Amino acid sequence: MFLAGEWKNKSQVIEVDDPGTGEIIATVPKGTSEDMEEALAMAIDGKKVAANLTTKQRMDILVNTAKLVDENVEEAAQIIATEGIKTISEARSEASRAAETLRLAAEEARRLTGETINFDQVSGNADRHGYTFRFPLGIIGAITPFNDPLNLVVHKIAPAIASGNAVILKPATQTPLSALWLTEKFLEAGLPAKVMSTITGRGSEVTPPMLESRDVRMITFTGGLEAGEKIAKSAGLKKLSMELGSNSPFIVFKDANLEKAAEAAVDGAYGAGGQNCLSVQRIFVHKDVEQSFTDKFIQKAKQLVTGDKKSEDTDMGPVISEKEAKSIMTNIENAKEQGAEVLLGGTHRDAFVSPTLLSNVPKSSTLYEDEIFGPVATLHTFSDYDEAIRSANEVNFGLQAGVFTNHLQTAHKAAYDLHVGGVIINDSSDFRVDAMPFGGVKGSGINREGVHNAIMDMTEPRVVSFKIESQ
């Protein structure tokens, strides 16, 4: 791991396995709280180094890192697909997106400006003029998840560097290799060693000093709601940016293009094995088109190829572990005991859960109320607009929603009535470009990611006022 300016090994290690095969593919150091204390001490110097980098230097580092990622997309994709849950085609897409996110951060570094202030808008201040500029917070603590082990790391590290901060990264225990690979590329691109540490290990053992430190001025975290609540309680008076998952609704009105809606729903529900915070989980279909939509959905879902992640023909890989697969199956079985009907799938082998669709799922079921983070969707019907919106809003999540309709007024009304961070019209909830504001409401988190928004969060404005003396 890259700790306090140098690469370090430790006698105690954590095994990294391929969830598709169970094979141990690597070991990484098992970090401790003492390691984090060492990283924090270095970061105090590192924040000064980072703040003194010129805009041009920050841009060059980010552009050069993007170039290195672009030149090594296949290498990055192989790492992503081996340590994680993505197919090789999904992994290539993520690696390419990571390079684009780095370029976005370089562009936003150029745009990090302030504004002039008209102090003479108040009587007695005609002799004053001034402006604001944005300055870096200092040290950013970043904690990232397993499902996008490269691009979500970039979404936290690149804005921190673009805005002149030092950063300490704790990548997901299951998928640390992508983050370590990226750290190498940052250093190769010219990032000063003191500016960044990447510490591997278990979050409960590594992160407490970072969360509690007064020197760390912001924690950016992507993960589960329970973990996010614990972090918020430990972090104290510092900025927080949290994306805590979802239970995304997908609404199909009766005037929708059902062929496209079914295709989008299948992609959204089963892409990355359903292990995406934006995954389609609760599908609401107008009762008049339920059967037609369901038939199309099942037909398309049955065409998905599940298996070897490295095969070019595979559409869906495993969930992150066999333990997680069994947990998903327990939720399915519990829903069945409460009256749910399996329309598709509902089986598992090792860490592979088949694409699953259930109907008649009670609202008291975990499949309806919670984030499942697996290839499981539930199907529900509604009679009118108000019922659809009410059902979509009634859980404690609100990241994004998908809405299919050809009626412009319905689309505009839904955009205002859905209590979420993003409303995606005529597409699934599983849509994101890396430049857009990204985040949710309720249990889905606080604040917004997306490079520009992250940079705003990682900086603060300072007011400067000049009083002009009379000659």
Automatic annotation (TrEMBL):
Protein name: Aldehyde dehydrogenase family protein
Keywords per UniProt: Oxidoreductase
Oxidoreductase among keywords: yes
Highest rank taxon of the organism: Bacteria
UniProt family annotation: Belongs to the aldehyde dehydrogenase family.
An annotated Gene Ontology molecular function: lactaldehyde dehydrogenase (NAD+) activity
PANTHER family, per database record: ALDEHYDE DEHYDROGENASE
Domain Aldehyde dehydrogenase, chain residue ranges per copy: 9-464
